[in-house]
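**Discrete fold encoding**
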Amino acid sequence: MKKDLKLRTTFILNIIFSVFVFIILIFIIFAFTSRQNDGIPKLFGKSYLTVLSNSMNTENEDYNFKGFKRGDMIRIKRYRWDEALTTTFEVGDIITFEWTNENGKLMYLTHRIIEVHEEEKYYITQGDVAAKNNMSTDPNDGHAERVNFVDVVGKYEKTIPWLGNVFLFLQGPIGFLIVVVIPLLGLFIYEIFNFRKAYIGYRNEKKGLTSEAKSTEELQKEIERLQRELQQKELNQKEKAN
């Protein structure tokens, strides 16, 4: 019974460990690839971005699109600047592009194309929420964007609900502590416990073998002593007979 319980406990712990290793591995891959790809994580040939606003958080029946919200993760098909320059996207496509905000910070926006200016090589984009509220499509009014072809970095493909929240949490100090540091520390302590247990078992087994060897040696000596006594008795009897 105890052995079965031990096996089940070990099995469960191994599963938990595997899950944490997988999460940590994905986190490391995302962190590494984001440094290699201008801050955009890449996995299995696809690029992923965490949604940081609700500018696309509405349904668009014209394009059968349910929207995505802050905390979701989106998958995009990545384009190099030279590919983006020679690829003409269409009205209705959702693209990700480089954008500098009013504070001069470079960021990525993912909005829908509402105009294509082929000769001048730029698009006008707008979030679906702004479009639904009939906001101005003039980029100068702040509710739409003029995007040069070369600034496009990807095309939207899919929404993964809430996964962005997970990675935002992991990227924070508390999330990293809870999901990465504490499990690794627990694993380290668990492995130390297993090593100590295995060492004690090995030492006890070695003691048992040593004790057994000593017992065998003492038994052999006792047999030899009895044989000598028996030989001595036989010798004494022969001398008396003579």
About this structure: The radius of gyration is 37 Å. The chain has a mean pLDDT of 84. Residues 182 and 188 are 10 Å apart (CA to CA). The helical segments are 2-36, 81-86, 128-132, 163-171, 173-241.
